[in-house]
Each structure stands twice: as structure tokens, then as C-alpha cells.
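Researcher: Sequence recovery benchmark, item below. Answer with residues only.
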């Protein structure tokens, strides 16, 4: 079965001759230029790493603050409706002022517990870019050994 011109595989192009190898070593200026480019690329990479770490930790902090805000709002709603219900129920047994004071004390304890939990979660947030610090230390060690 004959292949049409469109179905035939195309022969790969012949490779061109490689450029002639230079026997001379790179000049001092070229070496310094390469080092400068490498260092500048290294700094850019470290900055990008620090940005990524800060973004990740900021997201964790945002979630913790969101939980604290949600706890505050939920506490407020519960405080309003639950307190009214309990005060009216206790007012049938004692003076309404004492009933209101007891309910207020209970909600103060609940609010303290929510605050403590939110604060605990906030302490797990680490805004120091640990990975970036580690790689910078490694880069410094590498640079020291390069000059020795």
C-alpha cells in the first residue's frame, strides 16, 4: 500500500555542525558576570519563596481571625436570645435582676472560653518564613566555602 505525500513520515533534518569549541577559558569579566547573574537569580528565587511562605501563613492567620469573628458573632446571637429565655424562666423563681445577673455571668464564662480557643489557634501561626531562612543559611555556608 503506497502512502500519499501527506501520510509519509518526514525525514528529520540533518543536524548542523556544532559550533567550533574554543580552547580559551572564559575571561575574568565573563566569570564575574556569571556570578552576578547567578546571585541575582538566587536572590529572586529567595524572594519568591519568602512571598509564598508569607502568603501561606497569612491565610492561616486569616482563618484563625475568621474563627474568632464567627465565635464572637455566634456568641452575640446566643447571648441575646438565650439570655432572654433564661432570664424570663428564672424570673418565675427569683427576682428578675438576680436572674439577669446569673445569665450574664454564664455568658462571660462562655465568651472567655471562646477567646482562649481562638488565641490558642492564633499562636500556631508562624509568620517567620522558616524555609527561606534555612535556604539563606545554606546559601551563606555555600558562599563561605566557595571563597576558602
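Model:
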Amino acid at each position: 500500500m503506497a502512502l500519499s505525500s501527506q501520510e509519509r513520515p518526514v525525514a528529520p533534518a540533518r543536524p548542523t555542525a556544532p559550533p567550533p569549541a574554543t580552547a580559551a577559558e572564559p575571561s575574568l569579566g565573563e566569570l564575574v558576570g556569571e556570578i552576578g547573574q547567578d546571585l541575582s537569580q538566587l536572590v529572586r528565587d529567595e524572594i519568591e519563596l519568602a512571598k509564598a511562605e508569607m502568603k501561606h501563613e497569612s491565610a492561616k492567620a486569616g482563618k484563625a481571625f475568621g474563627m474568632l469573628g464567627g465565635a464572637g458573632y455566634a456568641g452575640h446571637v446566643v447571648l441575646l436570645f438565650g439570655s432572654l429565655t433564661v432570664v424570663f424562666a428564672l424570673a418565675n423563681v427569683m427576682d428578675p435582676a438576680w436572674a439577669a445577673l446569673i445569665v450574664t455571668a454564664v455568658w462571660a464564662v462562655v465568651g472567655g472560653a471562646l477567646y482562649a480557643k481562638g488565641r490558642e489557634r492564633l499562636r500556631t501561626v508562624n509568620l517567620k518564613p522558616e524555609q527561606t531562612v534555612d535556604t539563606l543559611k545554606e546559601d551563606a555556608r555555600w558562599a563561605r566555602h566557595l571563597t576558602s
